Amino acid sequence: MTSVQGLSEDDFPQVFRAADTTAIEGRRQYMSQTSLRLVLTVAAAALGVKAVTIGSSRIDWAALAASVAFFVALALDAFLLHGKPERAWYEGRALAESAKTLTWKWAVGGNPYPKGGVMLDEVLLFVDDLKALRRSSRLEALAPIGGTTVTQAMRDLRESSLSERKEGYLKHRLEDQLAWYSGKSRKSKKRANMWRYILLALEILGGVTGLLKAGAVVNIPIDAVVATGMGAVGAWLEAQQHDQVGTAYAVAVADLSDARVRLEMAQDEESWAQAVNDAEDAISREHTRWRASRSQS
Which of 50, 82, 93, 164 could form an SS bridge with 23, CB 3.0 to 4.6 Å? Predict the structure, then answer.
């Protein structure tokens, strides 16, 4: 029994893999440096709570450490402002997803690449569209990854029968995407709730420590540290956008579920080409919403 033919990420054009690598690295840099900057800010506030001296030295080592933490956080801010790793993330992801959409359309005979023409002309049209996509991207540089534009796996899938392309697309594109969106939606909602509980705990802690300080029970300004921690949690939630992501993915699941019905009902090349185009448009809408929300943050 032969396995259903599909496309793995190694089977996609060079521009997809280069943009995907660029996006992954941009996200890694942005999230790691943002989290470190927030941790350093909270640490600096905590170090400023109480002076720490050693022996007869008049140097407040805690204050000195707090200053170092602030300067390192400042350096990270400067890097984020100048290097803009989030731009590499957003633009790289946009280019990668657009290239993936065009690739699937071409490989399975979806519009605007329906089956029935001369293979050379179909290849040249796809190559021209990828070039136009790359030129329209605001991405300044791509990761140096070699490869070809039209892989053998893409050719093999396109040359297979309608039933084989239909089965391959439903399993390796639609079902994979549905599973990915569903999992990410659940995970995003769980993480959003987790951080809300953490924020609630910090608010309670801040209120209690404020009362203790007001009643002269303690004279250490812990409430200031708690307030800084709350600000850091809020900034991290803004960077992650768990709520927006979870909602967007839930909408995408509904759209793709509708698209699956039309894909399963397609019986000829014409209806199949349009059904594939509609399904890919649903995926593109999700990413357009994601990119717009990121650009506004």
Answer: 93
